[in-house]
Amino acid sequence: xxxxxxxxxxxxxxxxxxxxxxxxxxxxxxxxxxxxxxxxxxxxxxxxxxxxxxxxxxxxxxxxxxxxxxxxxxxxxxxxxxxxxxxxxxxxxxxxxxxxxxxxxxxxxxxxxxxxxxxxxxxxxxxxxxxxxxxxxxxxxxxxxxxxxxxxxxxxxxxxxxxxxxxxxxxxxxxxxxxxxxxxxxxxxxxxxxxxxxxxxxxxxxxxxxxxxxxxxxxxxxxxxxxxxxxxxxxxxxxxxxxxxxxxxxxxxxxxxxxxxxxxxxxxxxxxxxxxxxxxxxxxxxxxxxxxxxxxxxxxxxxxxxxxxxxxxxxxxxxxxxxxxxxxxxxxxxxxxxxxxxxxxxxxxxxxxxxxxxxxxx
Length: 362
Fold this sequence. Notes:
Residues 188-334 form the PurM-like C-terminal domain. Residues 65-176 form the PurM-like N-terminal domain. InterPro entries: HypE (IPR011854), PurM-like_C_dom (IPR010918), PurM-like_C_sf (IPR036676), PurM-like_N (IPR016188), PurM-like_N_sf (IPR036921). This is Hydrogenase expression/formation protein HypE. The chain is α+β, with helices and mostly antiparallel strands. The chain has two domains: 68-175, CATH 3.30.1330.10; 181-349, PurM-like C-terminal domain (Phosphoribosyl-aminoimidazole Synthetase, Chain A, domain 2, Alpha-Beta Complex). Helices cover 31% and strands 22% of the residues. The chain has a seven-stranded mixed β-sheet. It has a five-stranded mixed β-sheet with strand order 1-2-7-5-6, with helices on one face. Helix 4 (95-108) runs parallel beside helix 5 and helix 7 (227-236) packs across helix 10 (305-316).
């Protein structure tokens, strides 16, 4: 019996979620709060009620990690992102690594091979020039490692006290192979859900150096460019339904966004989600849920059941997918909702976070 069959198992009677409510803080905010940038419900409301109506357009309405479109006969993907992490350097990476890998990964989640990036530096008056040089060098090295070229850029300086040293913005463009159509709306009942490795590592790594916390062992960020891993998966089948890198809001936010976009239910096996011991210990100590902690070098894939075994095997043969695991499946019941089967045999709702547990981690 394959892992795919094992994880799914016989479906129990569908839980009745009619009338379920969850207390949440008042979200009718007259001013922007930190949670609006956390990738949760507040971020979603900002996009849905402010930005999307103001901008319009069918491409934006897809709300994917990047927009895929045809231009001049070429199928392209385009994405942009901003990075405000504190501290600028942390175990396993830096704001420069995040800027490159984050944008490359957003393109990869459409199946695109990243080609060119732009880079904007927003510098605070008084920041040390050698520090700016370190960030630039890290960014350039990450770009070379990911096989992309920084093609254009910009620099702005804000008054002392109006910034936080260095902020970065990157945009990227890449080519989408023929026959590839990866987007959140394609998730469907029967899809197998695979995560490419341990979750929560990046958020805990940043938190450990920001707040001076000791967890008994150094936790390094999982920051990495995932383009090569996605190419490996596409070599098995171009018919991957959904890819998402669970950054802000963590795995929980990514799964909820997909469930809502495709109007499907998602069931995960809580024990199957790979959480390394240092992350689990840190989260237990601080009262956090690893499902909501950001990642910067992991992806979650929704794969047709017929291809899932082969895709999982290919992922495990790639350096960035050795710990890949099947964590659940798409179902017809409770559309738009994510639930987890617990080790005690119960079922709990995995909701979209309101804001964020750990601010300023990407």
